[in-house]
Design goal:
Number of strands: 4
Distance between the termini: 55 Å
Radius of gyration: 19 Å
Structural class: mainly alpha
Largest sheet: 2 strands, antiparallel
Order of helices and strands: EEHHHHHHHHEEH
Oligomer: single chain
Strand order of the largest sheet: 1-2
Number of helices: 9
Shape: globular
Length: 260
């Protein structure tokens, strides 16, 4: 793994941060294209992305700290000043709240704003997961013998078994779940992108995003190392089920097709 891409004097460029920047640029391009297509100010793309990035990072880190509260109390600085330790659902909630503020401030209907943001969220998440892969951010999966298994040596948080804290023996390989999630994100983005200009009611693309992204994360968790929370499912899987249920419920409340 390559947690640090390069150093230039006192400046250190981390791979995780570089991919976060790339994810932001990718999202900005998607939002810019959608704002233009829908007749809104294209310059708002930067506001969308900045709000999503800031709110997402804050939400992701806060929920991670909440999950690790006892360890955080014991060593708070370790959890605050680090490039590792984020939860995707915390980032989703934080980013949604921040972007909602931008949408309201600029008088864009909330459902339209949600449809604009959905494809960008899908692809940006995938690009961000590539950063997790390169940095070794602890998002890897269970031990495996598949040909594409990866050894996350030199990982930013240490190449250890998360259940025991003991370093993996030499030669151990695991499922590269960040790559799986990148592929899932590309699929979700492609579906949303192809459907975005159809004659659907506002909110349809956003509800579909909730269903698809929830399903994608639910599936990949079976190869992840996260411990079960209840009924054999991880915390992320329960959150994913909630997202899918919300998406399906909103489809029932608001039909996808506009009334003739």
């Amino acid at each position: 793994m390559y947690p640090v891409l390069f150093r230039f004097g006192p400046i250190t460029v981390y791979s995780f941060g570089a991919f976060m920047a790339l994810a932001a640029l990718t999202a900005a391009w998607v939002v810019h294209a959608e704002l233009k297509r829908r007749g809104y100010n294209r310059e708002l793309a930067s506001s969308f992305v900045f709000a999503a990035a800031l709110g997402g990072l804050i939400g992701a880190r806060l929920l991670f700290i909440f999950d690790e509260w006892d360890n955080f109390i014991a060593a708070p600085l370790k959890y605050i000043f680090t490039g590792a330790g984020f939860t995707w659902y915390g980032g989703f909630l934080g980013g949604t709240l921040a972007v909602s503020w931008v949408v309201k401030k600029n008088k864009i209907p909330w459902l339209v704003g949600a449809d604009i943001a959905a494809p960008a969220l899908a692809i940006a998440y995938g690009v961000g997961r590539l950063g997790c892969h390169v940095a070794g951010d602890g998002d890897w999966g269970t031990v495996t013998n598949v040909p594409w298994g990866v050894a996350y040596t030199n990982a930013i948080i240490g190449w250890v078994d998360p259940n025991t804290g003991i370093p993996y023996p030499p030669g151990t390989r695991v499922h590269p779940t960040p790559i799986y999630e990148f592929i899932e994100s590309v699929v979700v983005f492609t579906i949303l992108w192809l459907l975005r200009d159809k004659d659907y009611a506002p909110g349809t693309i956003a509800w579909l995003y909730l269903i698809l992204t929830g399903f994608a994360r639910f599936i990949v968790e079976f190869w992840r190392i996260n411990p079960p929370l209840a009924s054999g499912l991880s915390e992320a899987q329960w959150f994913s089920l909630a997202l899918m249920a919300l998406g399906f419920s909103l489809f029932l409340i608001r039909p996808a097709k506009r009334a003739a």
